[in-house]
Each structure stands twice: as structure tokens, then as C-alpha cells.
Amino acid sequence: MTVFLNGKFMPMEEAKVPVLDRGFIFGDGIYELVPVYSRAPFRIEGHLARMERSLSEVKIPNPYSRAEWTSLIEQLIDKQPFDDQGVYWQITRGVAKRDHSFPKGVAPTVFMMSNPLVNPSREVIENGAKAVTSEDFRWHRCDLKTISLIGNCMLRQLSFEEDAIETLLLRDGKLTEASASNAYIVKNGVIATPPKDHHILPGITLDVVFDIVKRAQMQMEVREITEAQMRGADELWVTSSSKEIVAIVELDGKPIGTGKPGPVFRKAWQHYQDFKNEVMRARQHMRAA
């Protein structure tokens, strides 16, 4: 596999980072992941804007312009053998002596790789998935996409140990998101999702769902969702770049709604597939023409 590290493309096995890199010592860095369909990165401007905000908030200088980032991402995509990909990149503060304060005059470390984009199986789409819940014990800046993800990893492990797809998170009795997804409920045909704040990562797929719902003339609200409302929902979903839209049909061992993917999910999922074919794969259609 070809990766990118500090200005050079190279085989994965040749990529080396010094042990004093602050990403290794402190988890001091940010990351992004953009889905790629038919070798075209989807909503790259949105991902770059989110990256820029994360960098600004943690005070890491941005080493490249948007045009340079786009070029590097497209070059990495071209070097992979698969058409649908997930391009991951991270930027750390760089290499410096171990000190909690930010060092001056240090060049950021930039690493990029790409893997095949794996979406949920047909079985998961048809039958839904299980999830568990936990108190959201992460820090108060979940809106930043930082590489300090031990809290998310601990929360995801809870669901992994229960053979579930996700851990739904509750803070002060209200739904925030999941360990690696945004979350939604459906009640009486109306979709609802929590408002974006510092406890929720502003998901790009969340914005896609807003667009799809509007295009399909489905009802959607942005509001606080209590634990009781979540557990009493007719439908419960999670979304992310790789999961797309998945129905949660069992939560903490108890069924959600009928215990099967509901009609609102099925409509939204089909509209998502149509959107993916028409918009996300637009470059493929252009080549075919």
C-alpha cells in the first residue's frame, strides 16, 4: 500500500515517525476521513473546512492550502487499486521534547493512507443491528476531530464485546451521538437528531442526510432527545461515512419499535443509495458518457 508522509509518497512499510512526535507522546493532533466513490472524494470542501476548524482550535498550523490538500488526496487515490476508498489523514503538532506546552517553530507531521471503503452488509441493512448505551464520559470538545480517541475506543469496545454495531451515548440524560456515528430517532414518522454543539462531531454524512430528507420531502427536526424518547422511539438510526445509514433494532437487549428496520429508515436508505448513484458517483457517469 502506498501512503504519504511529510511530503513523500512511499510504501507503508517505509513510513516512519520519530518517537518524540507529539501525536505519539500526547495524542496531539487532528484527523479527517473522506469517502471516495468511483475514485472521486465526496464533499472534499466540507472535510477540508472541518479539518481547518479543528487545526485552528488546537492551534496547529495548516501545512497546505486547500488546492494542495486536494491534489495530494487525489494523487493518493490514484495510487490505490480500488475505486471506492476511505482516505484517512492526520496532522500532529510535530516532533519536540516532551513538554505539555505547545512548542514553537516545529513543523507538523502529515500522514495519509487510503483503504477500501466497506459499507454495511445486506444482512445488516435488511435486518438491522444491535447497539448498547453508555454515559458519555468523553471530554467537552467532541466537536473537534482529534486523534485523542481513547474515550471513543473504550465506548466502541463496549458494543464490540456485546456483538453490537455501536454504543449510543447519553450525557445528562440526553442523547449526544454514538462512539463513531451520529444518531437519530423516528417517532410518528418524524426524524429527529440532536443539535450540533461541542459534545457532537459535525458529521459530513449528517449533512448528507439533511439534504436527502429535504429532497425526499420527509420531516426532520433538530432538537434535544431524552433517554426515554430514545428508548421509546419507533426507529433508531446511526450514520457515518462508512456505515451510511443503519437501523438499530435492539438497544441494550430490548427491541426498538417492532424490532425490525422501519418504513422511514427504508425510505431514507433508498434515497441515500439513489443520491450516491446520482451525485457521489457523478464522475463515473461522466466517464461512461
Properties at a glance:
single chain, 289 residues, alpha+beta, nine-stranded mixed β-sheet, six-stranded antiparallel β-sheet, 15 strands
Describe the structure.
With about 290 residues, the protein is α+β, with helices and mostly antiparallel strands. It has nine helices and 15 strands. Strand 8 (about 165-170) and strand 9 (about 175-180) form a beta hairpin. The longest helix is centred in the C-terminal third of the chain and has 18 residues, at about 265-280. It is globular and about 55 Å long. The relative contact order is 0.14.
Task: Provide a concise account of the structure shown.
It is built from nine helices and 15 strands. It is α+β, with helices and mostly antiparallel strands and 289 residues long. 36% of the residues are buried.
